[in-house]
Amino acid sequence: MLERLSFTYIIQKTVVRIEEKTEYPCFDFLPLHGQSAYFALEVEEQEDVDSKTAWKTAYRYFIHAYAPSKAVLYAMIEQAENSLRTKIALPPGYDIERQAGAGKQKMEMLAEDQFHAKIGFETVVLHGDKMNF
Q1: Taking Cα atoms as reference points, which of 129, 104, 123 lies closest to residue 6?
Q2: Is the CB of residue 94 less than 8 Å from the CB of residue 125?
Q3: pTM for this structure?
Q4: Cα–Cα distance between 28 and 37 in angstroms, integer?
Q5: pLDDT score of 1
Q6: What are the φ/ψ torsions at residue 111 (nearest 5 degrees)?
Q7: Is 15 exposed, middle or buried (0-12, 13-18, 19+ CB in 10 A)?
Q8: Vertex 108: Cα angle to 27 and 21 (nearest 5)
Q9: In angstroms, rounded to a whole number, what is the distance separating the alpha carbons of residues 123 and 15?
Q10: What is the pLDDT tens value at each position of the chain, 133 positions in all?
């Protein structure tokens, strides 16, 4: 299968997984007036991965965690990472080669009662074998 999955498919499945496996809501946008603790996903890039044997696409994104305290932020980061230790569901003909933290990581205090973490993540999807004749 030569067709890549839409980035929105990967983001949607990631949002669902985080909401199912953590105690916090997760958005595919940054809400104007967020709750006290929540996740938001930010798309970074989608790029073909060079391979001699298979068609691969890397989907890179950031998981943002917003929390009222440092302790809650640490718990959220751990829950987000744990929630993505198992592969997200893909349609037939696609498989995940890699789903793990990658890229930039950042933690900061935005206000006295608001902490923020930015966690880089990457999902590499296989979508067909290359054949040599």
Answers
A1: 123
A2: yes
A3: 0.87
A4: 15
A5: 53
A6: -155, 175
A7: buried
A8: 35
A9: 13
A10: 568 889 999 999 999 999 999 999 999 988 777 678 999 999 999 999 988 888 899 999 999 999 999 999 999 999 999 999 999 999 998 999 999 998 889 999 998 889 999 999 999 999 877 776 5
Q: What is the 3-state secondary structure (H, E, C) of the chain?
A: CCCCCCHHHHHHHHHHHHHHHCCCCEECCCCCCCCCCEEEEEEEEEEEECCCCEEEEEEEEEEEEEECCHHHHHHHHHHHHHHCCCCCCCCCCCEEEEEEEEEEEEEEEEECCEEEEEEEEEEEEEEEECCCC
Query: Please, what's the largest Cα pairwise distance for the chain?
Result: 63
Cα 12 to chain centroid distance, Å, stands at 9
Residue whose C-alpha is closest to residue 46's, from 67, 61, 36:
61
Specify the amino acid at residue 48: D
Spatial CA neighbour of 36 closest among 66, 15, 64 = 66
